[in-house]
User: What shape does this take?
Amino acid sequence: PPVGFPEDMAGMTPDTRAALLGIYAGQYGSYTNLLWQVPALSLTAQAFLFAIVFSRDASLGARAASGLLSTLASLMSIYLMISHRIRAARYGQVAEDLARQLGAARGNPEQHRGAAGVWSGVNRGSFAFWIAGLGIFGFVGLTAAAISLVSLLRR
Assistant: This one.
């Protein structure tokens, strides 16, 4: 059973299961929303940092620092997206289990759109695409930092 659940779930009333379903479904929705806020916030930070990295007026030290911060922001965003996705999937699975215990049926899988379906999380293709995109931003930031540091050391 999930954390905090009694070992013997057979003693739970349908009302208790329905209340837990609402809680777990709400948490699933919350983590799914948080998951997709991460790339938007990360791209905002990346835009600011890349404005410094590619500015002719910025010093080499500022460019290197901004490139490293861009890489760090990308790595932190990737970690956070993965973390939110794992939590959303866990809460979604518990909510689905509770719904089935209350008599709900999932239905025909061919009628569900997207790779992940309704309860199991978010579309896997979109998730992988955004993770790759954030990784590319991190790589570009790291490359810019390396170029700036090499130029700074050659002075």
Notes: Residues 113 and 123 are 9 Å apart (CA to CA). Helices lie at 14-53, 60-101, 124-154. The two ends are 63 Å apart (CA to CA). DSSP finds three helices and no strands in the chain.
